[in-house]
Model the fold of this input.
Amino acid sequence: MNTITSIKICTATVLLSQTINNVKAQKADTTDKHPNIIYIMSDDHGYQAMSCYGSKINTTPNLDRIANEGMIFNNCFVTNSVSAPSRAVLLTGKYSHANGQLDNMQVFDGNQVTFPKLMQQNGYQTALIGKWHLRSRPTGFDFFEILRGQGEYYNPVVIGLKDTVVRKGYVTNILTDDAINFIDNRDKSKPFCLLLLNKAPHRNWMPDSAYFAMYQNTDFPVPSTYFDDYSTRTAAAHLQEMSVIKDMNLVGDLKLTDAPNYPGSESLYYELKRMSPNQFKLFHAAYDTITLNFRKNNPMGKDLALWKYRRYIADYLRCIASVDDNVGRLLDYLKKTGLDKNTIIVYTSDQGFYLGEHGWFDKRFMYEQSLRTPLIVKYPGHTKAGSVNSDFVMNLDYAETLLDIAGINPPKEMQGRSFKPLLENKTVPDWRKSVYYHYYEYPAEHNVKRHYGVRTERYKLIHFYLDVDEWELYDLKNDSNELNNVYANPKYATVVNDMKIELEILKKQYGDNIDDTVSYGKTLLANVNNLAKNADVKLKYPASPKYKGSTPSPLTDGIINQPNAQGFPRNYKNWLGFEQSDLDVTIDLKSEMKLTKITARFMDNQDAWIFSPINVEISVSTDGKEYVTLKIDNDKVNVKGNVLDIYKAIIKKSKVRYIKLVAKNVGTCPKGHLGEGKPAWLFIDEVIVE
Ligand code: SGN
Ligand code: CA
Done:
C-alpha cells in the first residue's frame, strides 16, 4: 500500500562546508534561499480549539491569520502523543524507538543529530525559547531560555544559557517578549531559526489575569461523545484515568478556592503561591465567585458532569486566548520590521488533546483528537494564501521540511519526508497513505495502556499490549467518532488482514521492533512481595511531616510508588522525605529469615531539590548487635521524569533478623543549583527485602 522513496541526497557533514559561506552572504530580509524560520509549538492545543479548524467553542483571529496567509493541514499526525517524545521527534526527525525518547520519563540524548544542529552548522543562528521538557541540556542552539520541567504559568523560573531566574509575569507573555527580544538583538548577518515553545494551554490551565472574566457565562456546546460508555471498546478505554467526570480535580484543575486541603489541590496551590499579591487578589476576585455559585447550586450527577466540562473548557480556552494574542503580537512585530516577507511561520502543538470527546481530557490514545495535531504554515512567496492540504503529514516530517526550506539536505537517518512540495501546492504522487503510531508511557499517570497502530484514510487499527493483548478497528468513514470497534465483526475480516499487513510494512520500514522496548515496560509493572511487610521499622531521624508516606510503614509496605511525572514535589505523598537529614533505619523482621536480596529505591529529581544519597550502607544481623556490611550495586533508572536510584545488596548469610540501612543526604543544594546552600532532600520509597 505504501512506500516512501528516499529523498535524502547527501549527509549533513558534506554540506557543512558548501553552505556556510553562501548562507552568510544572504540578506536576511529579502525573499531568498535561506529564509528565517519561526516554529511556534503550544503544549496540548487541540485543533478543535482553533477557529481556522472550525472551532465551535472559541475564535483565534491571530492564528487564523497564519492559515489565511498560508496553508492549513487537515491531516497532520504525531508518532507518539505525549510531550517529551513529540519534542524529540521534532528535533531528530526520527520515531521514539530510534531517538530513544519513548516517554516523558527519560532523559533526551542530546548527542544525536538534530535539525537545529544542522542549521547552526550551516550558517543559521538558532534559538530555543520555552518549554523544553527533555531534561538534558539543550544542544544545537546559539541561544536558549527554557522553563523548568513542565514550566510554571505565574512568575516562572527560566533557565538561560548562563543563569536561572524567576521572571515576573504570565508565562505566555514572557516567552513572546523574549522571542521578540531575541529577534531584535540577533546577529543580523545570518538567517535565524527560532523555536518558540509555549507552556500553555497545558494542565492545570491557569489563565492570565487579563482573561479571568472571559467566558464567565458561556454555555459551551458539549461534544456528542461526552457520555461515551466505551461499550464496544477493549480494556484500555475503560481503565484510563483521564475522564473529566471521574479524574478531574475540583480544586487542582477546576479551581474551587475554598478547599485548600482537598486531595489533589496541590497543582492549584503550587501556582497560587507563585503569584504576586496583585495576581493573587485578581485570581480570588474571579474564582471565589465561581466557588460560591458552585456551592450554592451544588450540582450533582449529570449537572456536575456538565459543570466540570464547562469549567475545564473555560480555563483551557482562556489560556489559548493568551496564546492567540501573543502570536498576533509577534506577527505585528514581523510586519512592522519587514521580516514577515522572508520569515516562515509554523504553528502547531506537541500533539492534540481531548476537549471532552469520549468524556476525556489529556491525550496519549491513538484516537483522532490526540493523534491529530493542528498545523498551519505561512511560507511567503511559496505558499498560496488560504490554501488547504489534506495529505498525511506528520511531526516526523518537521525536521526534514525545515532543513529543506533552509536549503540544507537532511541526513539519511531521518525517517520523515520534507513536505515543502506540498506547501508549494505540488502534487506528490507517492506521498504516504498511512501513518504509524506507537505510544509507550505505561504504567504512568492517566493509565493509558501501551499501544501501536496504523491509520489510513478509511481505517484505523490499534493493538494494545504489554499487560493486555487486544485489538481495535475503526471504520472512519462510517464512524468518524470512533465509537464502534469492529475488529471482531466478520464483515471486516479482510480489512483487518490488510491493515495488519500494512502495519507490518510500516514497522519494518521504520525499524520498530516491539520486543526491544517491552522489558522496559515490564520492569515498571513489576510487583514485589516484600518480606519486611510486617516488620518493625525504627527511624533514627524522623521523615519530614510534609512527606512521610500514607501507610504506617511506607518503607516496607510492598507498594512501589512511581514518582510523579510533573517533576515537582507535589504528589510525593507516598514517599518518605528527609530534609537535610539522613535516612537511618533499623528493620526488625521479628524472626530469622533466609534472604536473598535487599533493594532500596531513592529518587533523584534535582529540579525539586531532591538528590540521590551520597553514600548508602546496608548491613544485616542475627542478634541485633553484630552486623555484617553487604556489598552494594547501584543502578539508575528513569521513571516519569525522575531518576530512580536503586541500591541492591545480595545476601549470602542465611539467618537474618535485623537490617540496618544508612543513606547520607547531600546536606545542602550544591553550588550552581537554584537552591544553593539551602537544605537538600533525600527521598525513599521502599526497602524491598526478598
Ligand atoms: C502532568 C499532568 C498530566 C499530563 C502530564 C504530561 N498532571 O503530569 O495530566 O498528562 O503532565 O503532560 S498535573 O496534575 O501535574 O498537571 S505532557 O504535556 O508533559 O506530556
Ligand atoms: Ca503536551
